[in-house]
């Protein structure tokens, strides 16, 4: 698959051939759904917790005698039915993460890249560099490229001026190639890859 390389100023800067086994697959929604679910479950905190009746700081003495009062038979005041008692079947702190094979995760990333390429939401730029860290100038360059909602992936090292100028722009994410992931690719309308990122991805999936 051949695609035109753009410069950040919107001019053509040649062409690049993308590997069909990475960018030319037929996207499968079931694979992408499982991958996104794995990512969101892994980052879920799971720190919510309530106190059970065994953790309540309250007397465990019997409320009143068993017989002769005409009232129900109650024991501890820490029981869930009493105000100030423990919570029955409440949430406990735990990890929500589950396993997903490494090969499956790699396949899901290929399908996400292929989905963007197939839908026309993939742009390749020659390099991600700025002479100065000016957000206003970067906003104009993005407007010339038609980028309003995009994930931008650079090489292993990001240009400091470019990343600083882009980090305050709404709906724009900038990541090094090591941080590329399925969820961020799908949540943004356009995927922008630098030439270095394309080379790194093809090397990664060799």
TrEMBL record:
<keyword id="KW-0687">Ribonucleoprotein</keyword>
<comment type="function">
    <text>Forms part of the polypeptide exit tunnel.</text>
</comment>
<feature type="region of interest" description="Disordered">
    <location>
        <begin position="65"/>
        <end position="97"/>
    </location>
</feature>
<dbReference type="InterPro" id="IPR013005">
    <property type="entry name" value="Ribosomal_uL4-like"/>
</dbReference>
<dbReference type="GO" id="GO:0005840">
    <property type="term" value="C:ribosome"/>
</dbReference>
<keyword id="KW-0699">rRNA-binding</keyword>
<comment type="function">
    <text>One of the primary rRNA binding proteins, this protein initially binds near the 5'-end of the 23S rRNA. It is important during the early stages of 50S assembly. It makes multiple contacts with different domains of the 23S rRNA in the assembled 50S subunit and ribosome.</text>
</comment>
<dbReference type="Pfam" id="PF00573">
    <property type="entry name" value="Ribosomal_L4"/>
</dbReference>
<dbReference type="InterPro" id="IPR002136">
    <property type="entry name" value="Ribosomal_uL4"/>
</dbReference>
<feature type="compositionally biased region" description="Basic residues">
    <location>
        <begin position="65"/>
        <end position="76"/>
    </location>
</feature>
<keyword id="KW-0694">RNA-binding</keyword>
<comment type="subunit">
    <text>Part of the 50S ribosomal subunit.</text>
</comment>
<dbReference type="InterPro" id="IPR023574">
    <property type="entry name" value="Ribosomal_uL4_dom_sf"/>
</dbReference>
<comment type="similarity">
    <text>Belongs to the universal ribosomal protein uL4 family.</text>
</comment>
<keyword id="KW-0689">Ribosomal protein</keyword>
<protein>
    <recommendedName>
        <fullName>Large ribosomal subunit protein uL4</fullName>
    </recommendedName>
</protein>
């Amino acid at each position: 698959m051949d695609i035109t390389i753009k410069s950040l100023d919107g001019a053509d800067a040649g062409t690049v051939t993308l590997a069909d086994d990475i960018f030319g697959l037929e996207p499968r929604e079931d694979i992408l759904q499982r991958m996104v679910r794995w990512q969101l479950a892994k980052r879920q905190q799971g720190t919510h917790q309530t106190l059970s009746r065994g953790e309540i700081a309250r007397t465990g003495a019997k409320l009143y005698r068993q017989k002769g009062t005409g009232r129900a038979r109650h024991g501890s005041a820490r029981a869930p039915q009493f105000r100030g008692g423990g919570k029955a079947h409440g949430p406990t702190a735990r990890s929500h993460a589950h396993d997903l094979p490494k090969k499956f995760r790699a396949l899901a990333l290929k399908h996400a890249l292929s989905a963007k390429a197939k839908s026309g939401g993939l742009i390749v730029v020659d390099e991600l560099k700025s002479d100065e860290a000016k957000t206003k100038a970067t906003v104009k360059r993005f407007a010339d490229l038609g980028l309003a909602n995009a994930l931008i992936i650079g090489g292993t090292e990001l240009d400091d001026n470019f990343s600083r100028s882009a980090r305050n722009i709404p709906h724009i994410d900038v990541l090094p190639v090591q941080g590329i992931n399925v969820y961020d690719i799908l949540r943004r309308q356009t995927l922008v890859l630098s030439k270095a990122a394309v080379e790194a991805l093809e090397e990664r999936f060799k």
